Amino acid sequence: MTTTPQTSAPQHLPSPRRHRRIRRARPAVAAAVLGAVGVTVAVQSPDGAAAPPPGYRQEDLRRDTDAVRALGITGVQARVTTTSGRDLVATAGVAVSGRNRPVPREGYFRIASTGKALMATVVLQLADEGTLSLDDTVDRRLPGVIDGNGNDGRRMTVRQLLQNTSGLHDDLPGFDTPQEYYEHRYDTYTPEQIVARAMKHHPDFPPGTGWSYSNTGYVVLGMIVEAVTGRPWQEEVRRRILRPLGMNHTYLPGSTPTLRRPHADGYQVFASGERTDVTEQIVPDLGGYVSTTADVNRFFRALLGGTLLSEARMAEMKDTVPVAERFEVFWPGGRYGLGLVNRPLTCGGSYWSHEGGEAGYITLNGATDDGTRTVTVSMSTSFNDLGTTLGQHRTAGALVDHALCDTPGNTRRS
Prior knowledge:
- The protein has helices spanning 27-30, 58-69, 115-128, 138-141, 158-163, 178-184, 191-198, 215-229, 233-245, 293-304, 311-317, 386-405, and strands at 38-44, 75-81, 87-93, 109-110, 147-148, 151-152, 267-269, 275-277, 290-291, 321-322, 335-336, 341-344, 350-353, 356-358, 361-367, 374-379, 381-383.
- The chain is α+β, with helices and mostly antiparallel strands.
- The strands form five sheets. It has a six-stranded antiparallel sheet with strand order 1-3-2-16-15-14, with helices on both faces. Strands 10-11-12-13 form a four-stranded antiparallel sheet, with no helix packed on it.
- A hairpin with a 2-residue loop joins β14 (356-358) and β15.
- The longest helix is centred in the C-terminal third of the chain and has 20 residues, at 386-405.
- Mean pLDDT is 88; it is low at 1-43 and 45-53.
């Protein structure tokens, strides 16, 4: 994610890779809201029985999901998972613009930067095993890769990459118009090419002296995982996380530009107000994971529940620093750990998450400190203006807060 001016949204909000600029809201965007959309909601349990969870109920999730859809989002799906073993699931809107097909409750979507939490978990497991140290310099593991224009891998550590305090600048390829999307949607980039783009720039700050969201930093982490294990980092994620947890609906499309079915199509509303179906594109692997709300909740439940990391490593993952001021617009009170974001709850305490944004898909999620309650909301529309994007995040963030506080949607617990 590139460092952007104060008037711009962080690049992963809504998109970590594809959109270099976010412009202020235009009235035309609100007029693009689809008509004739519906909302469905169901409570699921392993035995097929239907029963609402206490506190935050069907009508609350229905209201919150519909509030997100009303902002001009083509389709929304949300899932709340609790210790009861029953999931509260709601959808709103349509799967394809202009059609009446509902959003699938088990639909696939691109999780984008949520995948950083997967990467961080693998790195911390390797540290637990003694395969690497969080205080290793990048140059020790990747000699000469971070070099030039003031970038120095001898001064940059694995921990700093994980915490976005490395200072690595993002210069990610992307598109700002429908024409650019059609021209570049099948472009591919190697990790080395992404890092080489960053090396053309001075660092945002000397390592360890500031905070700036860096997708490039996580690309470097993937290269380090491959260097120390001798296996592709994707295989490490698969064998350490996806297989053990039964996350059978989480995968990397690779060079396949389409998503498995069922899914809602993803739409980008560009600065012109034009709503473009951007579902079909090739996304670099690190940001390219596709998943479902059930799998994302399963991951955060296991991670925060202590299944994936030792107590000591989990404590390191939760050791946070303040995010840059410009990010507080999107993450009020937010602090960044090692691949995890910590944010306050209106009912007291805080929750853990890692949002994700790729052209056409925005994901917000959250888990209580012990992982006993998790929520994921996927939206199949992203915007190129700041005002609408802020509204989208605030409204979806309210859904996350209500669900984790187990509080009815329009009530703040005292």
